[in-house]
Amino acid sequence: MNGSEELARTVLLCRDYVADDVADDEICERLQSQRILCISDIRNLSSHAGQTALVTLVSLLSRMGMQVELDIPDIDLVLPQPPLVGSSLPNALMGGSEAFVRGATINACTDASPDVIFALGDSPLKGYRAPCWRLAGDEWSGRIASHGVGLPRSWAFEFPMGSMASAALAATEAFKVMLRGLRLRGKWVHEFVQPSRSAGWDFGSREALGMEFDLGAIDFISAGAISQAALYILDRIPRIHMRGRIFDNDTTALSNLNRNMLSLQEDVGCAKVEIVARRCGQVVLEPIAARYGNGNPECELLAPRVVVGVDDVPSRWEVQRRGPMWLVVGGTSHFNVSSSAHRLGEPCSGCLHPVDEPGPDVIPTVSFVSFWAGLATVMRLLQEAAGKPYSQGRQHLWLSPLRMDLPKAAIWSPVPARKDCPVRCFASRSLMDIDPIAA
Amino acid sequence: MNVTVEKKFAVDVVYNGVSKSLQVNPEERVTALLQRAIALFGVTQNAHLLSLFREDGTVVDESQSVEQAGLRPGQELLLRPNVVRGGFERLKVAGDVLPATFKVLRDCGRSECECAVYWTGPSHDGAVDNVEHPVHTRSAIGYEVENGWLTDFWKRLAAAKRSVKAQIHTHPGEAFHSASDDRWPIVSQAGFISIVLPHFAIGRTSLENAWVGVMLRDGHWKRLASASEVLVMS
């Protein structure tokens, strides 16, 4: 079975907790030998939210190299589910077999003894035996619970933010099952990888945002994992209006496929911006195959809202220096997600990330962590567009997806202005004994 | 009567969603507290990037004591990196750079002397598109770049808005970074790449057996498992 190149960064992330004497090949084989059964009845798949939960879960699992089996009825897609194609949900999903990661198959169920089962909503289990979690939630919140815990409702909603959160929660549990099957660094690791009896996420949103969004013009800086996750999510939100540009000069590599949600095997070697623009349906994007900055005149005038998932910290500073009205920055670090938004005048991304560590280490990544960064980014965008942004006390979110069942999985904080802000933003200059406008 | 006042207190450190209590002494340096927190959670990867953050988002100053930093009993501290990236962009090395590098190193070194070259490219991106061969003295155990050439080299780079992306040199035997390699790179900046080729670069035109390392923020060098971690050969 191949796919080791696609999974190299996921294997690297496993190294955080797997003993040194376990070979990379063994970790890779463990990922690829996981058999995950996804079950749903027709009622739970009749809504866009239910279908999106399943498609997202299968994509996240498959991008970890796992073998997915489906016990689902034949049903048409309610709305498109890029990058998958087809009009029938099972066919679209099975068309994704080995399309994300080589060797990661998606098939109709033939195996009665999976390692893990995920059931959508209140779908019956039909006598399968394995650890099972149910995916539940509503429009704005996602939840998973071990089978027998709570009374899940069926997925009868259209709006899919909650369903995608539940998929990310579920994919995390599959990953932890896999990790627990390997020799770990010590007993202390178990508290990070132990199963969640139940876990949920509601984005910390306390206000109703509505169900229709006009995001206006948005520039995406980078077409990498976080931008692709954000656009995967945005493109699934019904009745969203958005136009924008996306900047990136990179091409898709095999090692991107473990997390780039809009990319497939067939895209290797192609410009990332072209792939993203082509795969997005209702979200209209102009691809600009150039690195942001770089003397490119198209960078001179930014859209009022900018999404930054760009690789290096100085590039974030450069975008921030151009003074967009509103900027959202998503990043990941091992098993953690950082998400922040910066309105003009507020402490900026330079205040939050004042240090550049230009280490060339290959960044360890896994599908569900990058996807959480996309979810957090989109939620900030939707709140901003609805005129109900997070409070300043929630300007920064530090999310730890491995243990979403714990109260400290999400740490919200303000972003304090810093005198040594490398951007020299208005807020940082206000701390000094100089006129912030003249400076 | 002497009364001993117990000054120690506990703070809560949160890492990856897990919270643990840690006893601290007011006189203790924050840097020591940070190291104990790292050990408490068994962090082994990129621990040097971690800092402690308060609930208001401010970083706890590592140069201070616990007391000077104003830490209080029961205070919650988040252990997280102070740098968070979306990913790393590797150097993109043009197709003719590696063969040209080997040719220079072999021609100059003639299987008996060390030699060095520098990879350069536009300052604004991660492309490598040229090989610079410095004027240098050479022997079987070392090389030394001429000062005058170096001065001229920096001027040329600045005028052309280009920069040095990596240094490559040869060793007579196996590839490793010697103490002088550690101390005297042409660029002393975190992220700078150094490559050492074994056996005077004789053999296959490949980085497979090379020592490839990167300078860390603290000035130390870290050997990488493979050149592909930092380079994309086109």
Overview of the structural elements:
The complex is a heterodimer of chains A (439) and B (234). Chain A is an alpha/beta fold and 439 residues long. Chain A has 12 helices and 15 strands. In chain A, the strands form 2 sheets. Chain A has an 8-stranded mixed beta sheet, sandwiched between helices. In chain A, strands 3-2-1-4-5-6-7 form a 7-stranded mixed beta sheet. In chain A, strand 2 (67-71), helix 4 (89-94) and strand 3 form a beta-alpha-beta unit. The radius of gyration of chain A is 21 Å and the shape is globular. Chain B is α/β, with parallel strands linked by helices and 234 residues long. Helix content of chain B is 18%, strand content 31%. Chain B is built from 4 helices and 15 strands. A 6-stranded mixed beta sheet of chain B has the order 8-6-11-12-13-14. Chain B has a 4-stranded mixed beta sheet with strand order 2-1-4-3, with helices on one face. In chain B, strand 1 (9-15) and strand 2 form a beta hairpin. The model of chain B has no long low-confidence stretch (mean pLDDT 85). At the A-B interface, strand 12 of A face strand 4 of B.
**Into which percent range does the helicity of residues of chain A fall?**
25-40%
3D shape of chain A = globular
Strand content of chain A: 15-25%
Runs of chain A with pLDDT <50, length 5+? none
Largest sheet of chain A: 8 strands, mixed
Terminal CA distance of chain A reads: 60 Å
List the secondary-structure elements of chain B in sequence, H or E.
EEHEEEHEEEEEHEHEEEE
| Averaged pLDDT of chain B | 85
Q: Which structural category do the helix and sheet elements of chain B fall into?
A: alpha/beta
Largest sheet of chain B: 6 strands, mixed
**Residue share in helix of chain B:** 10-25%
Number of DSSP E strands of chain B: 15
Keywords:
heterodimer; A: 439 residues; alpha/beta; 7-stranded mixed β-sheet; 19% strand; B: 234 residues; 6-stranded mixed β-sheet; 4-stranded mixed β-sheet; 18% helix
Write the layout of secondary structure elements.
The complex is a heterodimer of chains A (439) and B (234).
Chain A lengths: L7 H7 L9 H10 L1 E5 L8 H15 L4 E5 L17 H6 L11 E3 L7 E5 L11 E6 L4 E5 L14 H20 L9 H4 L4 E4 L11 E9 L3 H10 L5 E8 L24 H8 L4 E5 L16 E4 L4 H9 L4 E8 L2 E8 L5 H4 L14 H19 L10 E4 L10 E4 L12 H4 L10
Helix pairs in contact in A: 3-5, 5-11, 7-11
Chain B lengths: L8 E7 L2 E7 L5 H11 L9 E4 L22 E6 L9 E3 L3 H13 L6 E7 L4 E2 L1 E3 L3 E4 L2 E4 L1 H14 L1 E9 L8 H5 L9 E5 L13 E5 L5 E3 L7 E3 L1
Parallel strand pairs in B: 1-4, 5-7, 5-15, 11-12
Antiparallel strand pairs in B: 1-2, 3-4, 6-8, 6-11, 9-10, 12-13, 13-14
